Amino acid sequence: MSAIFDRRSVRSFLPKAVEQYKLERILRAGFQAPSAHNRQPWEFIVISDAADLAAIAEMSPYAEMLQQAAAAIAPCVNLGQGNGIRQDTWWVQDLSAATENMLLQIVDEGLGAVWLGWYPDMVRVKAFSEHFGLPSHVLPFSVIALGYPANPPQKEDRYEPAKVHYGRY
Length: 169
Ligand SMILES: Cc1cc2nc3c(=O)[nH]c(=O)nc-3n(C[C@H](O)[C@H](O)[C@H](O)COP(=O)(O)O)c2cc1C
Known about the structure:
The protein has helices spanning 2-6, 20-31, 50-57, 91-108, 122-132; strands spanning 42-47, 71-78, 112-117, 138-140, 142-147. By secondary structure, it is of the alpha+beta class. Helix 2 (20-31) packs antiparallel against helix 4.
């Protein structure tokens, strides 16, 4: 699957909007992710307003590229409410799988992106939740900055046979 090997973080974007049909295919890829007990605990916030993107950029010291990005998608977890509220943290893996699925679809669409870590930095989680009006049982997990890449990313072969253990460590 070439998207896996072509994918690199892209932090520099052309001033060009991302088509709605591409955004929808990227979101569909997120929804297709595996999840523990097939709970599919995700919700997605799609942000393309420049002032909102600039506001998110201010919430993390590592999110400056959002000033240039055409859009951002924030995969969020819905922890449920009342007796149904989740105590376990399997959802972190569910949301990671959804985030990676979207990064790969983004490559397939001829776009570029970078995964920005949000949860478990609770300062970032709080700032994002307040700005976008998230209820307390919904937490932003990551922010994906995306757009048309200003430069084609360089492929990198990271295979390290010494880190592979067949049968026993
Ligand atoms: C959990 C996680 C959090 C990350 N947070 C940031 C971030 O805040 N800002 C950023 O520029 N890149 C962030 N990255 C991207 C990594 O820096 C990048 O994936 C890594 O350097 C490997 O490069 P590659 O994505 O080009 O393969 C994050 C990646 C992951 C998986």
